[in-house]
Amino acid sequence: MSSDFEAYEQDFGILTAEITNKVGRIPKLAGEEKTQLVLNVDKQLEEVRELLEQMDLEVREIPIQSRGMYNSRLKSYKQEMDKLEKDFKRSRIAYSDEVRNELLGADGGSSENQLIKLREERAHLLDNTEKLERSSRRLEAGYQIAVETEQVGQEILSNLSTDREKIQKARERLRETDANLGKSSRILTGMLRRIIQNRVLVFILGAIIVLTIVLAIYFNLRGR
Q1: Res. 21: pLDDT tops 90
Q2: I need a labelling partner for 178 at 20 to 30 A (CA). Which of 45, 115, 151, 193 fits?
């Protein structure tokens, strides 16, 4: 795990160095060239954010006894990222003296006021853009949570359906068992009835035999 973290650290160092260099160049540019460089830096900053997320996940997997050191390093990288974003924000509305003079031209007084107003409007637009980007990221995160929740719900429904089938099969087995028990009960009842009938017959036959013997003895004694 620590080796993965260190690999992310190397990528972080390379990316932030490139971004720092480009952020320093942005105020010296104007027009389409500046726009393209701003878009490029914005894309690289997003890559850095993803790197920090990966590093955060790696730190959580590191044993507790070693985690403190990596947490400190990650915290410093996040602070560096915050500084980069602030520098980038300032660079997007800044112009070097050379570019400013080129934009102002001969009419320096009124153009200076226009440039200040333009910078204020640009800063306001950039703030609104960043708010929209943050809202978009929150919406994406919310959508991802909704998708994951839906997947969990589908898994639960699938498990419930499987459990329902098992319960239905168990009920069918119980019905079959009840039917078999009913048949067995009827068979045993019939057998008991026959046993009782047989015993009654034996008792009657025994009584008849005893009575016959008694009568025979009686008549034999009387005949004498």
Answers
A1: yes
A2: 193
